[in-house]
Amino acid sequence: MPAFSPDSSPVTRHLSLTASAVAERAEQLLPEYRQIIANIAPEAGFGGIWESEMFLFYAAVKPFAPKQILESGRARGKSTLLLARCFPQSQIVSVEYERESNNALAAEAKLKNESNVDLLYGDSRQILPERLEAGDAILIDGPKDFRAIKLAIDLLQTGKPCAVFVHDFPPNSPQRKFVEHNFSNAFFGDDPLFLDFRELDVERDPRPHSQRGYGIFVCLPPPLPPLGLRPRLRLFFTT
Ligand SMILES: C[S@@+](CC[C@H](N)C(=O)[O-])C[C@H]1O[C@@H](n2cnc3c(N)ncnc32)[C@H](O)[C@@H]1O
């Protein structure tokens, strides 16, 4: 008789947020994702979330069909446009701190015809908790580091998000070590299961892989694990 695994029934597997379940879904979703990005003009050289990284978010979040996706950190709107096109049935609420910048103007121009996007300005640490609804998916790409973890925890402890993704968790960084120690259910975008999907980026930016500079996502699936005193203190002193 096969061993029972809570991840193994078709229904739980479908909604499971583990690296292996997401990689399995990704294989099936790859053709439709390729079609989505083929209709978006590449914008290499300005940074932002890579197509392969957004594919990880897509494969993880799509089965939850969130009514709303909250994005923190829009810059030129590359990730916002990908979200808008990947999730046409979702409302994308995108919050950016810097209103007076060329990036803000570029994002507004890029997104002006996307009917499912709300462009907000302000500090997402205030705005996201106010806008959060049950079942929302979250993408945080600014603030960074421990401020991002603190925001993710604030949102997760409401019990409302279906998934929280945070960008910029490279190996050996303090923020990554913190998550590795305290979130046993987290997984990262540089898991070997996902690396083949970086082929998607070759089509978008011909620079060699070594020059592309991946930020690396962490996925923090609910529920929020219990945090001990030391990690709580570490976050308490994060401003
Ligand atoms: C790396 S950029 C985002 C790139 C964008 N996600 C993309 O893929 O094109 C980070 C952005 O986060 C914004 N940011 C930083 N802290 C923020 C905060 N507390 N609330 C909202 N936006 C913030 C910065 O102003 C910056 O534009």
Topology readout:
Layout lengths: L9 H5 L4 H20 L12 H11 L6 E5 L5 H9 L4 E6 L5 H10 L5 E5 L2 H8 L5 E4 L4 H12 L6 E5 L6 H9 L4 E2 L10 H4 L14 E4 L8 H8 L3
Parallel strand pairs: 1-2, 1-4, 2-3, 4-5
Antiparallel strand pairs: 5-7, 6-7
Mind explaining what this structure looks like?
This protein has 239 residues and is an alpha/beta fold. The chain has one domain (10-236): Vaccinia Virus protein VP39 (Rossmann fold), CATH 3.40.50.150. It has helices at residues 10-14, 19-38, 51-61, 78-86, 102-111, 124-131, 145-156, 174-182, 199-202, 229-236, and strands at 68-72, 91-96, 117-121, 137-140, 163-167, 187-188, 217-220. Strands 3-2-1-4-5-7-6 form a 7-stranded mixed β-sheet, with helices on both faces. Strand 4 (137-140), helix 7 and strand 5 form a beta-alpha-beta unit. The longest helix has 20 residues, at 19-38. Bound molecules: S-adenosylmethionine.
